[in-house]
Amino acid sequence: PIPVIIDCDTGVDDALALLFAVRHPGLDLRAVTCVAGNTDVDGVVRNTLTVLEIAGAGHVPVARGAERPLIEPARSARHVHGADGMGDLPGLPTPTRAPADVDAVTLLHREILACPRPVTLIPTAPLTNIALLLRTHPDVVRNIERIVFMGGAVATGNATAVAEFNVWHDPEAAAVLLTAGVPITMYGLDVFQRVVVPGPDVRRLRASADPAARLAGDLLAHRPATPDADGDDPGGGIGDAGAVCTVVDPAGITTLPLPVEVSLAPGPTRGQTVVDRRPRPGESEIHDGLRPRHLVDVALDVDVNRFVKLYLDTVEGTAQK
Ligand code: BDR
Ligand code: CA
Question: In this predicted structure, what is the pLDDT of residue 33?
């Protein structure tokens, strides 16, 4: 199996990502680290431990990370993820274990270097922990296979007109990631928003006898997409879980290596990922000389049916390696 570590802000769809990662036989989930984002970091830790326990993965180490972005105060996403960050689902159990006694950066460093094979890191949250890791322990880069992050957008944003939430929440941290010199895949809003599980499948999951599949169904029902042709059966987006799908099935997305920069300026573009899709350098580069351009494999298209099937087969326990 592919060794992976998820850095998350659980988070309704982070929970969907964790359930998928635990269940897929081709993935070896070695640790989960938590960061402030959708809710405060203690809430993220609690939610993460709860989800792992329900999925039968109470052995996976979990660590608490940054409680705010590098520069700005934390801003929660209660309007999307509920007061508890998990959609305020009734009856969620309180976790029976505590997080690791080391912080997220220490756990990431330790687990990445201890792994016999290079690790794929999957951040599905603001990139604060990852930036701190890269600045504190730059030696981790030698045992990172790739960083597949959910964040950014080529086209429209969600937190603002042009900025996606994870990058907008900590733009400086995202800039550190994008210049880290490791292979990066950007699973941005352009693909993120398209992978929607149809309503009948969500209903089947919600009726499952398996607690993990049932939780996935309840979480998906909290993320209604636009109504389908009948107008009353909206289904639910897998969100962050799509970034994990790309690790087991990279052919499910279409990527292009493109230069990506984060807008750090105050004002309406702060947190925007500026993706350069021009076929050749523009006027400014011709006049001023080329600046170093950091290429990122940007996901531009996704095979929606393929990822929906992969997600359902995995969470319902019928996926092949
Ligand atoms: C991202 O922000 C969070 O709300 C989701 O969990 C996802 O990681 C989408 O912009
Ligand atoms: Ca998230």
Answer: 98
Q: What digits encode the pLDDT tens for the residues 141-158?
A: 999 999 999 999 999 999
pLDDT one-digit tens code per residue, 225-238 = 555 445 567 899 99
Per-residue pLDDT tens over the stretch 97-107: 999 999 999 99
The encoded tokens of residue 102 equal 């080391």
Kindly state if the Cβ of 7 falls inside 6 Å of ligand 1.
Answer: no
In the chain, at which residue ranges do the beta strands (DSSP E only) sit? Answer: 2-8, 27-34, 62-64, 119-123, 144-150, 184-187, 196-197, 236-237, 253-262, 273-275, 295-302
Q: Is the CB of residue 237 below 6 angstroms from any atom belonging to ligand 1?
A: no
Q: Is the Cβ atom of 165 under 6 angstroms away from ligand 1?
A: yes
Answer yes or no: are the C-beta atoms of 246 and 299 closer than 8 Å: yes
> How far apart (Å, rounded) are the C-alpha atoms in residues 194 and 184?
21
Cα of 85 to ligand 2 centre, how many Å? 10
Q: Give the contacts of 114 (CB within 8 A, at least 6 positions apart).
A: none
Query: What is the C-alpha separation between 37 and 2, in angstroms, rounded?
Result: 27
DSSP, res 164: -
Whether ligand 1 lies within 6 angstroms of the CB of 38 is answered as yes
Tens digits of residue pLDDT in 255-275: 999 999 999 999 999 999 999
The ligand 1 atom nearest the CA atom of 81: 4
In this predicted structure, what is the pLDDT of residue 79?
Answer: 79
Q: How far is the CA of 316 from the centre of ligand 2 (A)?
A: 22
In this model, does residue 281 exceed pLDDT 60?
A: yes
Q: Is 13 in the pocket of ligand 1 (CB under 6 A)?
A: yes
Joined tokens for residue 265: 């300026």
User: Do the beta carbons of residue 125 and residue 14 sit within 8 Å?
Assistant: yes
Alpha carbon 82 to its chain's center: 18
